[in-house]
């Protein structure tokens, strides 16, 4: 069914005119500041057709724009065609973000401006950024309208409610009771009585619960209030009861404005509200011994599935079978599903051959998917959710002969991947200080990539988690032993090919000396890196030695758990170069 998105935008403008709104902000998130919202809150997609994981829309009476980052530029241009919605690029040097655009472009010099938002789906922090962007001569009137699009979106999906899983202390490494007592201790240190938690991953971690309310994310859509003597969990039928319960709280209530939605914030008593960063993300990011062993196990089984998949792919394509990108998705998913404890993919698989791989977050089409041909590069970015961990892996592999440029790009990205994986750094180092380690080989060749180099990964939770990351943004959070991050530099040539190599790394102690305490990485991912597209003389001996040692480790770890023909194939694939 063809959808006229331009008509939807115009219908929204009619609502704006009738209510005196100068602008409407439509968020790509939900009432919990989730990266991946349930279908009910995919408001950006409904209004514009844009399906990327990060994007916000502003509609004024004479302009409509989508703000998204470098991962989605090509996709956005394609999906916004004919909608009348312009692309506004973020994470580039000349970016003009929404608050600045509203104040300096759309409504510069105005005495007042009425900006309507779905207060349930805008964070307190973002609304404050909008207010702060205007000078004091402009009165900024934020009109909070929960479920703003309901008057237009007549078949809007309901809030999902999937079966809930309770993790035991043995599975989680710590009881929910102990975690709650830790949180209460934190609240006492802040002089607070209660805490309202709205971020779904924080609630899942604190209560040791999981579900499937959001695709790829084992989360329960809910709110949580922790008081000195009780825990109130608002899920399923009681979800909306949180609004009434807020009025019953005694004393001060701690909230995190970066994840708290604007609607709830305004419902709370200002004098009893205490704002600050939640302590849960950092505590959750430093994995305990049980979680670390679970992540090792997840990557072991995931490696078996990956090697079986890559063997099938290579043999099928080389034998002349017609294998599409979507066929590869189906086969890979089936192999992962054979693993005991598999709970689904951790994100939508990116299965991309040739030009498709030039889109960092390519959407593999189910219908008329491109055929994988016996030459050039194929990129696969995928992951699994297991009861004992979460995986995320990208392997770019040659399907046959490659051009010199393909091999050159492949090798330079691999060098960056290896440089980060083998880095040793002093305790206290932040991820932004390591980002250049992975980019250096590309920079030396005057090449680059627009996305981050690494993100945190949860334990049977979100495939993206903070507060740590490895990217050029100035995030001061130090990397700590027990943190897990991805290592995924890339390179993308529009219309030609894309390369990304991604493994998952565990931060661990690396000894002490007179110069201080040191940290290093343990590579959790067990899947060989194909040497068939490498230009050897572009690599240093140290890089080659690391690669040979890594591939040998993969073979030794997996050989006895693979079908004989796959083990023999893997032995050839992992021979030293």
Notable traits:
577 residues; alpha+beta; Creatine Amidinohydrolase, Chain A, domain 1; Creatine Amidinohydrolase; six-stranded mixed β-sheet; five-stranded mixed β-sheet; 17 helices; 27 strands; 33% helix
Rg on CA atoms, Å? 24 Å
Classified in CATH, the superfamily of the largest domain is: Creatinase/methionine aminopeptidase superfamily
- Average predicted confidence as pLDDT: 96
Total strand count, please? 27
Q: Report the CATH architecture of the largest domain.
A: Alpha-Beta Complex
Q: State the CATH topology of the largest domain.
A: Creatine Amidinohydrolase
Widest sheet, order of strands: 4-3-2-1-5-6
Instruction: Please state the oligomeric state of the protein chains shown.
Output: single chain
Question: Which sheet architecture does the biggest sheet show?
Answer: 6 strands, mixed
As for the number of domains, it is 3
Query: Per the principal axes of the C-alpha atoms, what is the gross shape?
Result: globular
- CATH class category of the largest domain: Alpha Beta
Count of discrete alpha- or pi-helical segments spanning 4 or more residues:
17
Query: How far is it from the N-terminal to the C-terminal residue, by CA?
Result: 52 Å
Q: How much strand content do the residues show?
A: 15-25%
Structural class from helices and strands?
alpha+beta
What are the segments in which pLDDT stays under 50 over at least 5 consecutive residues? none
């Amino acid at each position: 069914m063809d959808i006229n998105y331009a008509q939807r935008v115009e219908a929204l403008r009619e609502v704006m005119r009738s209510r005196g709104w100068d602008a409407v902000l439509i968020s790509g998130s939900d009432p919990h500041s989730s990266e991946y919202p349930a279908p009910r809150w995919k408001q950006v997609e409904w209004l514009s057709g844009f399906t990327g994981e990060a994007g916000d829309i502003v509609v004024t009476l004479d302009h409509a724009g989508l703000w998204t980052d470098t991962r989605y530029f090509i996709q956005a241009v394609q999906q916004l065609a004919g909608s009348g919605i312009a692309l506004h690029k973020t994470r580039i040097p000349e970016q003009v973000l929404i608050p600045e655009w509203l104040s300096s472009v759309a409504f510069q010099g105005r005495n007042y401006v009425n900006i309507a938002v779905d207060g349930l789906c805008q964070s307190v922090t973002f609304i404050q950024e909008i207010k702060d962007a205007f000078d004091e001569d402009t009165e900024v009137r934020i009109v909070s309208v929960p479920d703003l699009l309901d008057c237009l979106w007549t078949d809007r999906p309901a809030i999902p409610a999937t079966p809930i899983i309770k993790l035991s202390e043995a599975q989680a490494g710590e009881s929910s009771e102990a975690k709650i007592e830790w949180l209460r201790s934190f609240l006492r240190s802040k002089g607070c009585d209660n805490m309202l938690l709205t971020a779904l991953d924080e609630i899942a971690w604190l209560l040791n619960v999981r579900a499937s309310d959001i695709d790829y994310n084992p989360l329960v859509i809910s709110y949580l209030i922790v008081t000195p003597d009780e825990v109130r969990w608002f899920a399923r039928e009681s979800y909306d009861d949180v609004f009434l319960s807020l009025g019953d709280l005694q004393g001060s209530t701690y909230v995190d404005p970066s994840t708290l939605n604007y609607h709830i914030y305004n419902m709370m008593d200002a004098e009893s509200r205490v704002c600050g960063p939640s302590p849960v993300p950092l505590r959750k990011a430093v994995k305990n011994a049980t979680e670390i062993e679970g992540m090792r196990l997840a990557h072991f089984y995931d490696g078996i599935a990956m090697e079986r998949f890559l063997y099938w792919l290579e043999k099928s394509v080389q034998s002349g079978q017609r294998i599409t990108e979507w066929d590869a998705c189906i086969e890979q998913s089936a192999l992962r599903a054979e693993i005991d404890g598999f709970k689904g993919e951790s994100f939508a698989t990116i299965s991309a051959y040739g030009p498709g791989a030039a889109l960092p977050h390519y959407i593999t089409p189910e219908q008329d998917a491109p055929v994988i041909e016996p030459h050039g590069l194929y990129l696969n970015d995928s992951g699994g959710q297991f009861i004992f961990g979460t995986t995320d892996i990208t392997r770019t592999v040659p399907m046959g002969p490659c051009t010199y440029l393909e091999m050159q790009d492949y090798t330079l990205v691999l060098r960056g991947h290896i440089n980060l994986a083998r880095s040793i750094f002093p305790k206290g180092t932040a991820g932004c200080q390591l980002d250049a380690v992975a980019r250096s080989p590309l920079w030396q060749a005057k090449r680059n990539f627009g996305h981050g180099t690494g993100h945190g990964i949860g334990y049977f939770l979100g495939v993206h988690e903070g507060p740590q990351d490895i990217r050029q943004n100035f995030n001061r959070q130090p990397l700590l032993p027990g943190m897990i991050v991805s290592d995924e530099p890339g390179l993308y040539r529009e219309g030609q090919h894309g390369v990304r190599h991604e493994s998952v790394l565990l931060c661990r102690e690396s000894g002490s000396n007179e110069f201080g305490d040191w940290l290093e990485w343990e590579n959790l991912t067990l899947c060989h890196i194909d040497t068939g597209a490498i230009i050897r003389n572009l690599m240093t001996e140290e890089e080659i030695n690391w690669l040979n040692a890594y591939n040998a480790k993969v073979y030794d770890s997996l050989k006895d758990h693979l079908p004989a023909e796959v083990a023999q194939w893997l032995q050839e694939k992992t021979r030293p170069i």
